[in-house]
Design a protein that fits this description.
This protein is an alpha/beta fold and about 260 residues long. The protein has two domains: about 160 residues, Type I PLP-dependent aspartate aminotransferase-like (Major domain) (Aspartate Aminotransferase, domain 2, 3-Layer(aba) Sandwich); about 100 residues, Aspartate Aminotransferase, domain 1. The strands form two sheets. Strands 1-2-3-4 form a four-stranded mixed sheet. Strands 5-6-8-7 form a four-stranded antiparallel sheet, with helices on one face. Strand 5 and strand 6 form a beta hairpin. It starts with a helix and ends with a helix.
Length: about 260
């Protein structure tokens, strides 16, 4: 997720990026992570469940990252905005803040709860001094949240079980549509199926048109928005697709019309 790198860079941090590769199923390369750590390293930043691939760390991989951070006395920040949207309960990881003394978990009401308009999120950590620093920084920026938004967030959190169940059902239905769609167009569409969330990267291996051209056609002709991967720092063969909305099947049908036109 781009801002996880861009914001630290904006404030003067030296950021080392680790590339996730489709041929490895978008898995984190733990050896590359070990080699990237220097005496100046202060923090490891993770984004799991991952945006935009939908990949996830295994429990064993998370434990390795924690032990590596502990060895070098590093903070770990995990952007957990797609947590609680795992397709299988066994895949779900605990919040990082609960399993590492220098772990930081951040999340929002936007994804799993579908309440982006509230602009409510949180940060959790065991390090009380760090939380005080974050709180003092907030006093100099937005000061506090909108009280009506906080009340609506509390109402939603109290109904978390039913909201999350509904979101999971919708995601699974849309995944089935998308699986069938990819299979139908398997000659030039493929993906590593996500393990969580409502987004993924599709590989577009077409001989007549590029991903950028496809994105422009989809938007201009059928008002369907896809995001070329290279805009997010990826390659030129993939694009991001979201499948978390109730009208996803309708959007997918519109997108299929675009594909039919270029294949005539």
């Amino acid at each position: 997720y781009e801002s996880l790198a861009k914001l630290p860079q904006h404030f003067g941090a030296d950021v080392t990026l680790l590339e996730l590769r489709s041929e490895n199923g978008w898995a984190l390369d733990l050896q590359a992570l070990k080699e990237a750590i220097t005496p100046k390293t202060k923090m490891i930043i993770l984004n799991y469940p991952h945006n935009p691939t939908g990949s996830h760390l295994t429990h064993a991989a998370l434990n390795e990252v924690i032990e590596l951070a502990r060895l070098h006395d590093l903070y770990i920040l995990n952007d957990e905005v797609y947590r609680l949207m795992e397709y299988e309960e066994a895949v779900q990881l605990p919040p990082l803040a609960t399993c590492y003394e220098k772990g930081i978990s951040i999340s929002v009401m936007t994804k799993a709860f579908g309440m982006a308009g509230l602009r409510i999120g949180w940060v959790a950590a065991q390090d009380e001094k760090l939380i005080d620093k974050i709180l003092n920084t907030k006093f100099y920026t937005s000061i506090c949240n909108s009280a009506p938004s906080e009340i609506l967030a509390i109402i939603a959190l109290r109904q978390a079980e039913s909201i999350l169940k509904s979101a999971q059902q919708l995601t699974q239905i849309n995944l089935e549509y998308l699986d069938a769609f990819i299979e139908k167009h398997a000659s030039y569409l493929s993906w590593t199926r996500p393990k969580a969330g409502c987004i993924g990267l599709l590989k577009f291996d077409h001989t007549q048109i590029t991903v950028d051209q496809l994105a422009h056609l989809a938007l201009e002709q059928n008002k369907v928005l896809i995001m070329p991967s290279h805009i997010m720092g990826g390659d030129t063969k993939h694009f991001r697709i979201g499948f978390g909305r109730a009208n996803f099947k309708e959007a997918l049908d519109q997108f299929e019309q675009v594909l039919e036109k270029i294949n005539r």
